[in-house]
Write a structure and sequence with these properties.
The structure holds 2 protein chains of 2 kinds. Chain A is mostly helical. Chain A has helices spanning 31-36, 38-52, 62-81, 91-113, 115-118, 120-123, 132-159, 170-194, 198-211, 227-230, 234-247, 254-278, 282-285, and strands at 2-4, 17-20. Chain A contains 13 helices and 2 strands. A two-stranded antiparallel sheet of chain A has the order 1-2. In chain A, helix 4 runs antiparallel to helix 7. The two termini of chain A are 21 Å apart. Mean pLDDT of chain A is 85; it is low at 1-14. In chain B, the strands form 4 sheets. Chain B has a 6-stranded mixed β-sheet with strand order 5-6-7-3-8-9, sandwiched between helices. In chain B, strands 13, 14, 15, 17 and 18 form a 5-stranded antiparallel β-sheet that branches. A 4-stranded antiparallel β-sheet of chain B has the order 10-11-12-16, with no helix packed on it. By secondary structure, chain B is of the alpha+beta class. Chain B contains 9 helices and 18 strands. Mean pLDDT of chain B is 82; it is low at 40-53. The termini of chain B are far apart. Chain B folds into 3 domains: 3-12 and 58-258, 3-Layer(aba) Sandwich (Rossmann fold); 18-54, no CATH class; 265-387, Distorted Sandwich (Coagulation Factor XIII, Chain A, domain 1). Classes of the chains: A mainly alpha, B alpha+beta. Chain A binds chain B through residues 1, 7, 9, 14, 16-23, 39-40, 43-44, 47, 50-51, 54-55, 121-128, 191, 194-198, 280-281, 283-285, and chain B through 14, 19-25, 27, 88-107, 109, 111-112, 115-116, 118, 120-121, 125, 128-129, 132-135, 137-140, 161, 184. Strand 2 (17-20) of chain A pairs antiparallel with strand 4 of chain B.
Chain lengths: 286, 421
């Protein structure tokens, strides 16, 4: 499908030409089209963020309660009972600092992998680039992230921890979490259209992934000879990066950062092509 | 005149049945099974392929069409003729299997009103959300916001979540957003059949406004009256192909006469193949208008004939006929008078008067009853037919409500002037 768009609202004849033809083989990703539909992307993300806590008593408070509850549980079980080391930082803030990107990632991944099937009523009724759906889920989660982040800042003041200059690099780590969630989410949501097994796999995947990431423990617990394998997990880089930027502990070495970036980008690009290849079939089989 | 929609050799193939298995585990299971089958029986692969081939259907086949700028074209045809598939390809919801389409201009598509409405959001929020989904920019929606609200007549409830709306309010708001979409090419699927009479009038007015404004409209409908009123040219789809294209009045009247695809007659000549059981078997069912060559419309009387074979001598039999709407609601049930028949063929005829049924699709189920109480054979959907609407005197084209549309006697007279009250 080739399309050139020239959106202007004058009543002058517009030069829009649309060609519809069978989809064969690989397509160009046509990312410009996503940009053309950025307003819809924004609307969908806004909708998800707004609707999430409607008609709940605590409302947006859930965005605060969820990570805090998890933090308390982790502190009691892993910090107090199991006495896991926390790199010299109080355990609550040590784990909260990881829960922040982790919760965001887990939710974005879960939501984006359900995004197509969950919007089948849209897919069968109206055209827009389908990629908008998983992307909007990744953006919608940022609101909760921002709220939970404010709590972290409050905790840092409470514990008297001042952030390092690495704080400036925080957006990069957030971006990494976004891209990882999106890349994996795109794969899963496209697969979910065809095979509804995916829906059952995702919760396991997220749970497994959490234990494979240093949310409750420190990377120093991972044996030296397995570190290379461990750092293939992009979320290791994200969490280590968060702890480094906010708590100033255990500066990540370049290998731990660079490898996940490459892994993440590979997942995203392959996911985009896979998604694009399947895109035209979605409405027929969803 | 310039061509804005150019369709060439368009086809869409669907695979039925084993299209895809919904569970990955099944898929793995299936491929293991087919591998083991191939090992056991090398010839089976070919067999399977032919089965697969039989499960393919062409929803559209070799459709060629050119639509000029500013034209309003109606698309008609029975359910399953390919209308919705054509719409879905034109609106880019699904891709074609063969052929191509060139379109010049922004395409707006209304396959359903209220697409993407979220029940938890307010009317105001939904206007923006729905507008964006239909392809309007935020600036455009802001500009048209007041018009949309005024058109929908829901000003008071703008900040109420739409889940608290009545269905009428919901539909009015949804249509209002859609009606303010103004692309160069508008594709509309029977959205007119919404709301109450006065709102429908407004919608139709809006449609006419769009078409006179030089935009190209593709209007898909079962409602021949609305098609006649709005469209200059009509495309008649049948079995995925363009059966006829041409002047609206000509094509619509041909369509009404031929009524492609309905089951007006079923005859079984081979006694072995006749549907039924050891007691009775159906030989024939036929529906015909009176007179024979009249189109089946709201005011046409219908003759229904059945012939069946009775195996048991000296049985008291009668027929009971169920007339169901397309959705399966029973419109009426009528019995023939029971008689004692010897073994052999029996013919029973029933006359359904004109001006009784409303327009729509009807399905008839017939039951053979023994001794006035035991149903010994039931044949569902033995006849299926459409009752067409007639030209109306009023300017309202929505679906006439109700299952029946009898002509009843009214007495109206002027009594006195209002001054005396």
């Amino acid at each position: 499908m080739i399309e050139s768009k020239n959106i202007n609202n004058c009543s002058v004849r517009q030069t829009i030409h649309i060609r519809i033809s069978p989809s064969l083989g690989w397509h160009s990703l046509n990312l410009k089209e996503i940009w053309d539909y950025r307003e819809l992307l924004g609307m969908l993300a806004w909708r998800d963020a707004t609707v999430r806590y409607k008609q709940s008593v605590v409302g947006i408070g859930w965005a605060v309660l969820q990570p805090i509850m998890t933090m308390i549980i982790f502190t009691v079980i892993f910090g107090k009972f199991a006495k896991l080391p926390s790199d010299g930082v109080p355990y609550p803030i040590f784990t909260y600092c990881a829960l922040l990107p982790w919760n965001y990632f887990a939710r974005s991944l879960g939501d984006s992998s359900d995004s197509l099937v969950g919007s089948s009523h849209l897919i069968t009724k109206v055209y827009f680039p389908r990629l908008i759906l998983p992307i909007s889920k990744v953006f919608a989660g940022l609101i909760d992230f921002a709220i939970a982040f404010v709590i972290l800042l409050a905790m840092m003041i409470l514990y008297g921890i001042s952030p390092t200059k690495g704080l400036l690099l925080l957006p990069i780590f957030i971006l990494m979490a976004m891209i990882t969630a999106l890349g994996v989410g795109i794969w899963l949501t496209a697969l979910n259209v065809m095979y509804r097994d995916v829906k059952f796999v995702v919760p396991f995947l997220i749970q497994f992934w959490m234990y494979a990431s240093p949310v409750a423990y420190s990377t120093s617990l991972v044996p030296e000879q397995w570190q290379w394998l461990y750092s293939l997990n992009p979320m290791v880089g994200v969490i280590v990066g968060f702890r480094w930027a906010l708590l100033g502990k255990a500066a990540p070495d370049i290998f731990v950062l660079l490898v996940p970036v490459i892994v993440t980008i590979l997942i995203l690009i392959s996911g985009l092509y896979f998604f694009k290849r399947m895109e035209k079939m979605f409405a027929d089989i969803i | 005149m310039s061509t804005v929609i150019h369709i060439e050799g368009l086809g869409k193939k669907y695979k039925l049945g084993q299209v895809h298995t919904h569970l990955l585990s099944e898929k793995i299971g299936n491929s293991l099974r087919s591998v083991s089958q191939k090992i056991k029986n090398p010839g089976s692969a070919a067999v399977r392929r032919s089965v697969k081939h039989g499960n393919e259907i062409w929803a559209l086949r070799d459709v060629n069409l050119q639509i000029n700028a500013g034209e309003v074209v109606g698309v008609i045809g029975r359910n399953g003729a390919g209308k919705s598939t054509l719409l879905k390809i034109l609106s880019r919801i699904t891709g074609p299997t063969t052929g191509w389409i060139d379109m010049e201009g922004r395409v707006g598509c209304l396959l359903e009103v209220g697409t993407g409405f979220h029940p938890e959001l307010t009317g105001r929020e939904n206007i923006f959300l729905n507008g964006a989904i239909l392809g309007m920019t935020k600036a455009e929606i802001k500009r048209k916001f007041d018009d949309i609200v005024a058109f929908s007549e829901i000003e008071k409830f703008l900040d109420t979540p739409v889940k608290r709306y009545s269905s009428g309010m919901y539909v009015r708001l949804a249509f209002s957003v859609a009606a303010h979409l103004d692309p160069e090419i508008l594709i509309v699927d029977e959205v007119l059949a919404v709301g109450d009479a006065s709102f429908q009038k407004k919608c139709l007015g809006k449609m006419q406004e769009v078409s006179t404004g030089g935009r190209t409209v593709l209007f898909v409908s079962h409602n021949m009256t609305a098609v006649r009123e709005l469209c200059e040219r009509v495309v008649w789809l049948n079995d995925g192909k363009v059966a006829r294209i041409g002047n609206t009045d000509k094509i619509v009247s041909e369509y009404l006469h031929e009524n492609a695809g309905a089951v007006h007659e079923q005859v079984w000549t081979d006694k072995e193949r006749m549907p039924g059981n050891e007691k009775v078997r159906m030989r024939m069912a036929r529906l015909s208008p009176e007179p024979e060559d009249a189109p089946i419309s709201v005011n046409t009387p219908l003759i229904v004939e059945f012939e069946y074979w009775n195996a048991c001598p000296d049985t008291e039999l009668n027929l009971t006929l169920y007339l169901n709407s397309l959705e399966g609601t029973c419109v009426f049930n009528s019995d023939s008078s029971p008689q004692i028949y010897p073994a052999g063929f029996i013919r029973e005829t029933c006359r359904i008067p004109g001006n009784l049924l409303n327009d729509g699709t009807y399905r008839m189920t017939i039951m053979v009853v023994k001794d006035r109480s035991f149903d010994i054979y039931k044949h569902e959907d033995i006849l299926v037919f459409d009752v067409q609407d007639v030209e109306r005197e009023c300017r309202w084209y929505g679906k006439w409500p109700g299952f029946v549309r009898p002509q009843l006697q009214w007495t109206s007279k002027y009594i006195e002037t209002s001054k005396t009250v």
